[in-house]
Every structure is written in C-alpha cells, then in structure tokens.
Design brief:
Layout (H helix, E strand, L loop, with lengths): L1 H20 L6 E3 L7 E8 L4 E4 L4 E3 L8 E6 L6 H17 L8 E6 L7 H9 L6 E4 L2 H11 L3 E3 L10 E3 L3 E4 L4 E6 L5 H13 L1
Parallel strand pairs: 5-6, 6-7
Antiparallel strand pairs: 1-2, 2-11, 3-4, 3-7, 5-10, 8-9, 10-11
Helix pairs in contact: 2-5
C-alpha cells in the first residue's frame, strides 16, 4: 500500500512541475534522443528563502551559488521514491567522479516535512546514503517561498490512527547553475547514466 502511495505521488508531482514549466513552452527544450531532461532556454532564477541545513547552518539562495547543484525534494519517512532517487544520484555521482573535465556538482535534498524532519534527523538520514550529500529543511512558510515559484508541489495526506502520514510531492530533479538559476528538470523514472549525460549536455551548451 505504501509503495502505491509513493508511486501515485511520483506521477502527481511530475505532472505538476511539468505543467508549471509548460505554461511558458518557449522556455523549454528537450535535449537529444536517449536523454530525459527538459532544459530551460531562459534559466529560472531561484526565489529568496531561508532554510537550515543538517549542520545547523543557514541555507539561502546564495548558498546555491558558485557550484552546480542537483536539487531534489522529499522527506525522510518516504518509503520508496525518495530513497530510490537518492540511490540514483549516488550512481550519478560515481559516474561524474570519473569525468574529470566536468565541474563536480553538489547533491541537495530538501525535506518538505518540516514537522518531522529536524536538521538532526536529516544529518542521520543522509549518512545512510552519502557523506557529501546535504539535507536542508525549514519552517513551512520558508519552504513555500522556495517551492511555489519553482512549481514544486507537495501535500500532506491525512494521518492514520498512529499519527503517521505520507506526503504527495514532486519527484523531479532540478539542476541549478552557479548563478543560482534552474537550468533543467528531470522527471521520474530516473536513470543515473541518463542524468549524467544530460548534465554533460547542459554544461556544454
């Protein structure tokens, strides 16, 4: 049942973000065959926001500058889509580590579960996967400041009798450039080799 909920969230989230970007189709361009990313002809500037990372440090739009970043959204209690996405990005990282000619990106997990995901919880969660991946979160009003202008959808479902709940959310991975601008998005299902190729394509164009 949980897997079904997770996959439903993936479909809903993907449809939402693609719909948001397709409001301005002239800004979009599919990269060549055998790739999945949608590249923005006109990069989308990140909005102002103030979150906190797993180390207790402020994380703002300026924190995204000076390095390429893969940005993805979820929550630590997610049963399937979130850990699957992180595992895919771990494979992307392994592939890109071998591409010495490419700038090495960061991988940033934004928790949209402000009620349950404290910085401490995020720090523990991220160590299960990769020591260099960064988790960030923050109060609901700041999360909305970040996610709404980007077309990132999330919605908490009603809790069960034990107080547990799932969250429907966007599963797209955003690629943010060193000027803190969204350059492309990739919808699920994600493939590590394809994401690595798409990254190469974006940097070369």
């Amino acid at each position: 049942m949980l897997f079904g909920l997770g996959m439903a969230a993936a479909v809903l989230g993907a449809a939402w973000i693609v719909g948001e970007f397709l409001k301005s189709p002239e800004k979009l361009s599919l990269v060549p065959a055998n790739t999945r990313a949608t590249v923005l002809h006109e990069p989308l500037g990140m909005p102002e926001f103030e979150l906190i990372d797993q180390n207790g440090d402020r994380f703002t739009r300026d924190s995204l500058k000076e390095q390429w970043s893969f940005l993805f959204f979820g929550y630590t209690s997610c049963p399937d889509v979130c850990p699957t996405t992180i595992n895919v990005l771990m494979e992307v990282d392994k592939t890109l580590q071998q591409k010495t000619e490419l700038a090495k990106p960061r991988y940033i997990f934004v928790s949209i579960d402000s009620d349950r995901d404290s910085p401490e919880n995020l720090a523990e969660y991220m160590t299960y996967f990769h020591q260099d991946f960064l988790g960030v979160t923050g109060p609901e009003n700041q999360l909305k400041k970040m996610t709404k202008p980007l077309g990132i959808f999330y919605e908490k479902n009603s809790p069960d009798n034990e107080g547990n709940y799932s969250i429907n959310h966007t599963t797209a991975i955003l690629l943010v450039d060193p000027q803190a601008r969204v350059r492309s998005l990739t919808s699920a299902p994600h493939n590590a080799n394809t994401i690595a190729k798409d990254y190469h394509y974006v940097l070369a164009n």
